[in-house]
Structure prediction request, 233 residues.
Amino acid sequence: MAGGILYNLINIIYPAQCLVCKNPVAPQVIVCQDCLKQIEKNLPPFCPRCGRNFKNNKCLHCGSLNFYFNRAWSACSYTRTSRELIHLFKYQGKVKIKKILTEILVNFIRNFHLPMNKIEVITPIPLYRTRLREREFNQAELLSASVAKEFKIRHSSQNLIRRLNNTAQAKLNADLRFKNIQGAFVIKNRDEFHQKNVLLIDDVLTTGATCSEAAGVLKEAGAKDVFVLTFAS
Prediction:
């Protein structure tokens, strides 16, 4: 009884708000339905390389870029609401947003029949150790662990390592991103990926430079096919 009264009192003094628009919401609601509806879902036809929607059989995003991964998919377009969710999750420590992002990823996988039956290992794009200490978690690892659990696929979180503390990719143009990320990753135990089909998971695909570099390292370790899944692109 006392606990219920205290809970109600807290909700009166500090009413629940949508993390995105700050409008009042019911207790336990993280993001309101209006904001969720504003997330622009990625729809087919998908570019067979970068996974973005393309028209007239032409991708306006990846162009002539060469990637080490076999193909990529993204559940959403990187527009205002999806960008806000990622920033809250990634930079402001709103870890509970993971539930929403994971649900969208899982629905995307199921709705568009991604070949999860062929995936043998799921691994996240890693953070450099100092950045991980600052942020206290790797957003890609939280998402990859949730997807791996949902589809009962082996999750590898400590084998693909980021060994270089490169300039943040977000600060660079497309050409510099590919140069900046070279040599950033290393694998501790090659056997875990040898002759395996691997799914790399990250929050955002921009130029594809980071995921491509990681995929190249995985293939050097003997991985067969490397696919990429991100929340947004």
